[in-house]
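Records of this kind hold a single protein each, on a pair of labelled lines. Below, a sample record shows both lines together.
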Amino acid sequence: MSTAQEAWDDVDAYFTTLLAPDDEVLAEALQDSDAAGLPQIAVSPNQGKLLHLLARIQGARRVLEIGTLGGYSTIWLARALPEDGRLITLEYSAVHAEVARRNLDRAGLGEITQVRVGPALESLPKLAEEHPEPFDLVFIDADKVNNPQYVEWALRLTRPGGLIILDNVVRGGRVTDPDSEDPSVRGTRAALELIASHPRLSGTAIQTVGTKGYDGFALARVTV
């Protein structure tokens, strides 16, 4: 008898093969990330396709990503942009950023994407000082401890009607524990509570199962 994880893997493989198959560029992005020793925590192909579709549905021209890794999710998002679109992605590790830049260049997306290196809570104020055109979509997939601050910055930098996506919010089910000492759980709970209480946000969260195990994501629309 197959385990639950094996069943989840089989379903994800079916959905991915049918609806979100990797092309050569995406496959090489993952291969190069593995070869460089990056952690294998990129979004799955069907999650990448979801990001792509959300950006398309949003009609996004400007996207901000917090947490680049090797640029796999960045490619999915950037491919949704029009010719005059722009994506800025923030990455803590210079090594990860270099891998991401190579992957984005190979994908033909180097001209519309920019990888900025450094702690996101240092990069975000610098970005705000540039008074950029407001973003249409923000994808947050970085250290979970600082999730509340990332949501606050996303709200500041996003236009009314914009979409904020917060990844990895279920924490294997531990997100329900109000007494958790896990900084990632505490940061995620605080971000969700911020989304729930903020007068400019309307959001929800979805549980998922699949190749990434038991997880989920939150969506929040900037209302005004």
The chain has a mean pLDDT of 97. The longest strand covers residues 158-167. The chain is about 45% helix and 25% strand.
